[in-house]
C-alpha cells in the first residue's frame, strides 16, 4: 500500500480524498494555485505545494507541475479527483513515465472511454444502443448546422472531453446551433484544454440514469447500482439520488450487465460511471462513460456501505476487489443536493465573494433512521472565486425510504446557513417540497418545466405562515425579555411588555397573543390555533431550531430593518412584530419604490468580459447578443431585452467586473 499520495485537485473532492487516505494511514499532499493558498484542502493535507497562478490552465491543468510536485514530496501515487486532468490520457502516461501510480483507470481505457466521441464508437462496436448523432469532429459552425439539420432538432452540442455541464448546449434551431457551437468550443478549451465538440440527437422528456462501476487489475468488474441525476439546470446536475425511482430490478440488472460488458471490453480497472439517457418507459441508450470518480458518488456509498475512494486506492495498489457482484446490496435511499454559489432568482448566475457565515447542518444520525453527510471544501471566512466551479458543498441524506431521505434532506437544508454570497439553498428547499419531485415523476427538463419564469422564493401560506409567524413572535418576545435585564434600566419586574401583538409576515397580518408555555411560550392566533414554541436559540445564531406545536423546525434568520428575514422550506418573508398601535402607524407609512436601470446593461455576476459584440451608435434588436461574461468556467451570453441604440460601451474585453458593474449604456 502507498505511504503518501498527492491529490491533483482542489475543493471538496480534494478534502474527500484526504479523509479516506487519513483513515487508511496514508499521508497526503495537496496542490494549490495562488487563489487557493488558504483553501481548506491545503490546511487538511500533510503537505502542500504551490503550482501556479489562479487560472486552471496555468496551474491545475499543467501536468508537468503536478509531476514535479510528486518528485518534490515523494508522493508515490496521484488521485485526480474529477474534472481537471482526471480524464486526460496524457496525465497517467506522464505519471507512468515518472514511475508514479495513477489512482484511476489505465490510459488505454481512458482513451477508449474517456473521450465522448471515441466511447460512442466503442459502444456502437459492442452493439450497445446509442443516441443517434454524428461521431466525427465538427470543425465549423456551418458544419454543425448542417449536421444538426440531418439529425433533426432539437440537438445537443457537447464537448468531447467535457463533463459537469461545461461545453454543453441544447439547440432548437440553426441559429442556436451556430451560437452554441462557439460557446461549447470556448468553454471546452478553457475547462479541459480540448475544444473538440460533437452533435447528437436530444431525446425529449428524458431521464438521466447512470451505473457506478468498480474494476481491478485482475479482470474483475462489478456494478454498484444506479443513480438518478435528472434534476439539472444548464446541463449540470442539481439533485442526485440512489437508487432511481424509475428502475425495476430487471432494468437495473440489464443496465448494470451492459455497463460491465462495455468496461471489460476496454480493460477497465478503477471506478467509473456509464451514463444512460432513459425513457419514461424504461428504455435506455448509452450516453457516455466518465472514467473517473463522479461528483455524486456519495449517494452510492450511502446505499452500498462502500468507500469508493478506498476501493480506487486499493485497486491502484494492485489489490483484488474485496467484493463480488453477489455481495452488492442496496440498503435504503440516499439523496444529494449540490449547494452552489449562484443566485437562483437571477437565472442561477454565479456568485462570488467571502463566506461571512458558513454553518452546515450537523453530520451523523438525524433521527428516524436518517443520516446526514456534508462533503465540502470551504469554511467560514473562505472565499468563492471566479476561477473555479461554484460548488460549495454536497449535502447528502440517507434513510430507509425515499420520502424519509427527502424529509431528512429538507430539514438539513433548512439548517444550512450561508451568508456573504448568493446561494441556491432556498431553491433546493423548494425542490424538496415539490410534489412532482416527491412523486419521482422526473425528467431532465424538470427545472425548465416547473420554473419557466425562473425561481422566486414564495411567500409562506397556510400552516407554513403560521409556523413562521409563531417563530417571529417568539424571537421578538425573547428580545423583549432580554431588554428587561439590561444594566441601567428599571427593575426587571417593573417593566411590562404588551402581550397582544401583530405579526406582519410579508403582506400578511397575524393578530396574536403571547402566553406562557410549559417549556417556552405559546402563540395564540386570533381565530386560529394556539402553538407552543420552544427553542434554545439566541440572538446572532443564523438558524432558529426548536419545536412549533409538535413539529421540529429549523428556520434561517437574518436581521433586517425593524425585524427579521425568515426562510424555511423554500419560503421566505420579512417578519415584523408590533404592538397594536405600532401596526396602525406602520400601515400609514408610504412604500419606497426602487429606481430602474433600463438604459444600462449591468454585469449580472462577478466575472471576466470575454466578448463585447456591439459598438457605440449600433442599433440592436431584442434578443441580440451584447456581451459574453465568463464566471466559474461558464460563459454567459448577455442579450438585449428590447430594441435600442448603444450609446457608450464602458467595459473592455479581458476586464474583470464586479456584480452590477455597468457594461454599456443605451441612448
Set down the secondary structure blueprint.
Layout lengths: L3 E4 L3 H13 L3 E7 L6 H5 L2 E6 L10 H11 L3 E3 L10 H8 L3 E2 L4 H8 L1 H10 L7 E2 L6 H11 L3 E9 L2 E6 L2 H19 L4 E5 L5 E9 L5 E13 L2 E7 L6 H17 L5 E8 L5 E7 L6 H8 L3 H9 L16 E8 L1 E2 L5 E2 L2 E2 L2 E3 L4 E4 L2 E7 L6 E2 L6 E9 L2 H13 L2 E3 L5 H9 L1 H5 L6 H5 L12 H22 L15 E6 L2 E9 L4 E5 L4 E6 L7 E6 L2 E10 L2 E6 L2 E9 H7 L13 E3 L4 E6 L6 E2 L4 E7 L2 E6 L4 E6 L6 E2 L4 E5 L1
Characterization of the model:
This protein is α+β, with helices and mostly antiparallel strands. It has five domains: 4-103, Rossmann fold, CATH 3.40.50; 132-201, Dna Ligase, domain 1 (2-Layer Sandwich); 208-450, ATP-grasp fold, B domain (D-amino Acid Aminotransferase, Chain A, domain 1), CATH 3.30.470.20; 463-586, 2-Layer Sandwich (Glycoprotein, Type 4 Pilin); 600-666, OB fold (Dihydrolipoamide Acetyltransferase, E2P) (Beta Barrel), CATH 2.40.50. The chain contains 17 helices and 40 strands. A hairpin with a 2-residue loop joins strand 31 (563-568) and strand 32 (571-579). Helix 5 crosses helix 6 (116-125) and helix 12 packs antiparallel against helix 13 (425-433). The N and C termini lie far apart (68 Å).
Record keyword descriptors for this entry.
alpha+beta, Rossmann fold, Dna Ligase, domain 1, globular, 5 domains, 667 residues, single chain, 17 helices, 8-stranded antiparallel barrel, D-amino Acid Aminotransferase, Chain A, domain 1
Sum this structure up briefly.
This protein is α+β, with helices and mostly antiparallel strands and 667 residues long.
Amino acid at each position: 500500500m502507498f505511504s503518501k499520495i498527492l491529490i491533483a485537485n482542489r475543493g471538496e473532492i480534494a478534502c474527500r480524498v484526504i479523509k479516506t487516505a487519513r483513515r487508511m494511514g496514508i499521508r497526503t499532499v495537496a496542490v494549490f494555485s495562488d487563489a487557493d493558498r488558504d483553501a481548506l484542502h491545503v490546511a487538511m493535507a500533510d503537505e502542500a505545494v504551490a503550482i501556479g497562478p489562479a487560472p486552471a490552465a496555468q496551474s491545475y491543468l499543467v501536468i508537468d507541475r503536478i509531476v514535479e510536485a510528486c518528485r518534490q514530496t515523494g508522493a508515490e501515487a496521484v488521485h485526480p479527483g474529477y474534472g481537471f486532468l482526471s480524464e486526460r490520457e496524457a496525465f497517467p502516461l506522464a505519471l507512468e513515465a515518472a514511475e508514479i501510480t495513477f489512482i484511476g483507470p489505465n490510459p488505454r481505457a481512458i482513451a477508449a472511454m474517456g473521450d465522448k466521441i471515441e466511447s460512442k464508437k466503442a459502444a456502437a462496436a459492442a452493439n450497445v444502443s446509442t443516441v443517434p448523432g454524428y461521431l466525427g469532429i465538427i470543425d465549423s459552425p456551418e458544419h454543425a448546422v448542417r449536421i444538426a439539420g440531418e439529425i433533426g432538432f432539437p440537438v445537443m452540442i457537447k464537448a468531447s472531453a467535457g463533463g459537469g455541464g461545461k461545453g454543453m448546449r441544447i439547440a432548437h434551431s440553426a441559429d442556436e446551433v451556430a451560437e452554441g457551437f462557439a460557446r461549447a468550443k470556448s468553454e471546452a478549451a478553457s475547462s479541459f484544454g480540448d475544444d473538440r465538440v460533437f452533435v447528437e440527437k436530444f431525446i425529449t422528456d428524458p431521464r438521466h440514469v447512470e451505473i457506478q462501476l468498480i474494476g481491478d487489475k485482475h479482470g474483475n468488474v462489478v456494478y454498484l447500482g444506479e443513480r438518478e441525476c435528472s434534476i439539472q439546470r444548464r446541463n449540470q446536475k442539481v439533485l442526485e439520488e440512489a437508487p432511481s425511482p424509475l428502475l425495476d430490478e430487471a432494468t437495473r440488472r440489464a443496465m448494470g450487465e451492459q455497463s460491465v460488458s462495455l468496461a471489460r471490453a476496454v480493460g477497465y480497472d478503477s471506478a467509473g460511471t456509464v451514463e444512460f439517457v432513459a425513457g419514461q418507459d424504461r428504455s435506455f441508450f448509452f450516453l457516455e462513460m466518465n472514467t473517473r470518480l463522479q461528483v455524486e458518488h456519495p449517494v452510492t456509498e450511502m446505499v452500498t456501505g462502500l468507500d469508493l475512494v478506498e476501493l480506487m486506492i486499493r485497486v491502484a495498489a494492485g489489490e483484488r476487489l474485496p467484493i463480488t457482484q453477489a455481495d452488492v446490496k442496496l440498503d435504503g435511499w440516499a439523496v444529494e443536493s449540490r449547494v452552489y454559489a449562484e443566485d437562483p432568482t437571477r437565472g442561477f448566475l454565479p456568485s462570488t465573494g467571502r463566506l461571512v457565515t458558513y454553518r452546515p447542518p450537523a453530520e451523523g444520525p438525524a433521527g428516524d433512521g436518517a443520516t446526514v453527510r456534508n462533503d465540502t471544501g470551504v469554511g467560514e471566512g473562505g472565499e468563492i472565486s471566479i476561477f473555479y466551479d461554484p460548488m460549495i458543498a454536497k449535502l447528502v441524506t440517507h434513510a430507509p425510504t425515499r420520502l424519509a431521505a427527502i424529509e431528512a434532506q429538507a430539514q438539513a437544508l433548512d439548517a444550512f446557513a450561508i451568508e456573504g454570497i448568493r446561494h441556491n439553498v432556498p431553491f433546493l428547499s423548494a425542490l424538496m417540497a415539490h410534489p412532482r419531485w416527491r412523486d419521482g415523476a422526473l425528467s431532465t427538463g424538470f427545472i425548465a418545466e416547473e420554473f419557466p419564469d425562473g425561481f422566486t422564493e414564495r411567500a409562506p401560506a397556510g400552516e407554513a405562515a403560521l409556523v413562521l409567524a409563531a417563530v417571529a413572535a417568539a424571537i421578538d418576545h425573547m428580545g423583549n425579555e432580554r431588554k428587561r435585564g439590561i444594566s441601567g434600566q428599571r427593575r426587571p419586574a417593573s417593566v411590562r411588555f404588551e402581550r397582544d401583538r401583530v405579526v406582519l409576515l410579508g403582506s400578511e397580518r397575524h393578530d396574536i397573543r403571547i402566553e406562557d408555555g410549559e417549556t417556552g411560550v405559546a402563540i395564540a392566533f386570533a381565530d386560529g390555533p394556539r402553538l407552543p414554541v420552544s427553542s434554545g436559540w439566541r440572538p446572532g445564531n443564523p438558524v432558529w431550531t426548536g419545536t412549533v406545536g409538535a413539529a421540529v423546525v429549523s428556520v434561517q434568520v437574518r436581521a433586517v430593518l425593524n425585524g427579521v428575514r425568515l426562510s424555511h422550506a423554500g419560503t421566505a418573508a420579512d417578519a415584523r412584530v408590533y404592538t397594536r398601535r405600532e401596526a396602525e402607524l406602520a400601515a400609514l407609512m408610504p412604500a419606497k419604490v426602487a429606481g430602474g436601470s433600463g438604459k444600462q446593461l449591468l454585469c449580472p455576476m462577478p466575472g471576466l468580459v470575454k466578448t463585447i459584440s456591439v459598438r457605440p451608435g449600433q442599433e440592436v434588436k431584442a434578443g441580440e447578443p451584447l456581451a459574453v461574461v465568463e464566471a466559474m468556467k461558464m460563459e454567459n451570453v448577455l442579450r438585449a431585452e428590447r430594441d435600442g441604440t448603444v450609446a457608450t460601451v464602458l467595459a473592455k474585453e479581458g476586464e474583470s467586473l464586479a456584480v452590477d458593474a455597468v457594461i454599456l449604456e443605451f441612448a
